[in-house]
Amino acid sequence: MTSPTFPEIKHLGKADYDSTFAAMRAFTDARTPDTRDELWIVEHPPVYTLGLGADRGHLLAGASDIPVVQTDRGGEVTYHGPGQVVIYLLMDLRRNKPGGKLYARQFVHKIEQAIINVLQAYNLVGERVEGAPGIYMAGGEHQGAKIAALGLKVRGNGCTYHGLSLNVAMDLAPFSWINPCGYAGLETVDMRTVGAQATLSDVQQQLAEELVRVLAANE
């Protein structure tokens, strides 16, 4: 049985980005030191989101047909759409974790590790790239292509929101209408493109459970 101190996994189903973004901020505004952490699993309709320092010049020809939302996360422009796992992490990093308080850099590392572990379960090898948050293919025909993105907001009180996206089985064309995360010409792939047959619901649940496991581990 999961300890109540572990994050609660919530399935939001299909939900528009604007209302989910507002709900994340409202949850974080209202939480107290006793509020249980939560992981929100959601699938968004097509939307581009901009990080705080994002350059709108990274929106290219073709992007005008998809809504653009300014957010308060870190990072540049990214795309969310059907067939993509999105998990938002509403966490309090001040809480005692194994070995002490969880720092933002450790938090990001653990999130990335959870994605790598889930990809490995489908015989896919993902890797980190120094200075470029997210997960990239480590070999094969699509070596260097981005398969998962990461963007977080960490408030001064240690509470986080926003999170990650992992591409499962998508229409990848909208990624070609931006410079993903600010990198011109960066190839973006999904699990289907690199040979993994996986359902969105399976990957949603596997990744959420792996995040809970990795975040609780004393590593």
TrEMBL record:
Any one GO MF annotation of this record: lipoyl(octanoyl) transferase activity
Q: What is its main location?
A: cytoplasm
Lowers pKa of active site Cys, annotated site positions: 146
**Which residues belong to any copy of the BPL/LPL catalytic domain?**
33-219
Instruction: Report the record's Gene Ontology biological process terms.
Output: protein lipoylation
Q: Where does substrate bind?
A: 73-80, 149-151, 163-165
Q: Where, subcellularly, is it found?
A: Cytoplasm
- Keyword Acyltransferase: yes or no? yes
The record's EC number reads 2.3.1.181
Q: Which Gene3D superfamilies match?
A: Bira Bifunctional Protein, Domain 2
The reply to whether Transcription figures as a keyword in the UniProt entry is no
- Keyword field: Acyltransferase, Cytoplasm, Transferase
Indicate the residues that form the catalytic site: 181
**Pathway info:** Protein modification; protein lipoylation via endogenous pathway; protein N(6)-(lipoyl)lysine from octanoyl-[acyl-carrier-protein]: step 1/2
Q: Which CDD domains match?
A: LipB (cd16444)
* GO cellular component assignments: cytoplasm
Catalytic reaction(s) noted: octanoyl-[ACP] + L-lysyl-[protein] = N(6)-octanoyl-L-lysyl-[protein] + holo-[ACP] + H(+)
The family note in this entry says: Belongs to the LipB family.
Give the misc comment.
Answer: In the reaction, the free carboxyl group of octanoic acid is attached via an amide linkage to the epsilon-amino group of a specific lysine residue of lipoyl domains of lipoate-dependent enzymes.
Function description: Catalyzes the transfer of endogenously produced octanoic acid from octanoyl-acyl-carrier-protein onto the lipoyl domains of lipoate-dependent enzymes. Lipoyl-ACP can also act as a substrate although octanoyl-ACP is likely to be the physiological substrate.
Query: What is this protein called in UniProt?
Result: Octanoyltransferase
Q: Lineage from the top down? A: Bacteria, Pseudomonadati, Pseudomonadota, Betaproteobacteria, Burkholderiales
Encoding gene, per UniProt annotation: lipB
